[in-house]
Amino acid sequence: MSVPIWVNGELYEPDKAVVSVYDHGLMVGDGVFETVKAVNGESFALTRHLDRLALSAKRMDLPEPDLAAIADGVRRCLAAAPKWPLARIRITYTSGPGPLGSDRGSAGTSAIAIVGEQAPFPATADVVVVPWPRNERGALSGVKSTSYGDNAKALAYAKERGGAEAIFENLAGNLCEGTGSNIFFVTGGRLITPTLSSGCLAGVTRALALEWCGGEEADVPISALYEAEEAFLTSTTRDIQPIRAVDGKVLPQAPGPVTLEAMKVFAERSAADLDP
């Protein structure tokens, strides 16, 4: 079954859903996006994701997106899709068609929503620390931009070395984030995640994990990850996923007691409220 795709207010069959080849989302990565989870046909935390889309657009000086229209587009896509146990909603918002350079055009923005089935993540993940740092002082720091080339390169690097996710440090040598995830670890019984000033994305699942499961934000050296008692990744489609090994070094517990409790609480709270 083909699922219609929403483009600028209209639903199209996949082979008819197009944007201009001059769209700056394609040409220069001038856009932002969100990934939203859907469970049995119902989106999760859509309001938070749309709020972050608007914040990312503001930080990139893009026109303010029509969040109500995008939310309606998501609902229309979900209504036309199978009620998959787990699905991924991809929302993309770009500056629209422009010239063959970095200057933006005046033809208007592009907004797209796509829904597809998502396979569950494995019970645990091995991660690989990559040699390229995040720039916590860069113009796109903390922005969920479509300029994802560094993430694609880093993830390929990790997979070539047996990992399922790549982990970045920042220019200060501190732990930052994954390519599509935030990271938590336990040391001395303390649950810690990098601060937003580290350059990591303000993940929706990260924020909910802090609210529901506790933990603290701290700037810590990348070396702290190797000495962790337990650790886990958070992201929209994986929720909370225990980390088994870092650069081949197996952690003492995967999942450990803190991770197990966080997984339990997150599952209960997210099931009780689909738009927290």
TrEMBL record:
Name the source's superkingdom: Bacteria
Q: Which GO terms describe its cellular component?
A: cytosol
Among Gene3D superfamilies, the record links this protein to: 3.30.470.10, D-amino Acid Aminotransferase, subunit A, domain 2
A GO biological process of this protein is:
carboxylic acid biosynthetic process
InterPro entries for this protein: Aminotrans_IV (IPR001544), Aminotrans_IV_CS (IPR018300), Aminotransferase-like (IPR036038), BCAT-like_C (IPR043132), BCAT-like_N (IPR043131), Class-IV_PLP-Dep_Aminotrnsfr (IPR050571)
Q: What are the entry keywords?
A: Lyase, Pyridoxal phosphate
- This chain belongs to the protein called 4-amino-4-deoxychorismate lyase
Q: Which family does it belong to?
A: Belongs to the class-IV pyridoxal-phosphate-dependent aminotransferase family.
| GO MF entries | lyase activity
Q: Per the record's keyword annotation, is Lyase included, yes or no?
A: yes
Q: Does the keyword Transmembrane helix apply?
A: no
Source species of the chain: Microbispora bryophytorum
- Cofactor(s) the protein requires to work: pyridoxal 5'-phosphate
Supply the Pfam families for this chain. Answer: Aminotran_4
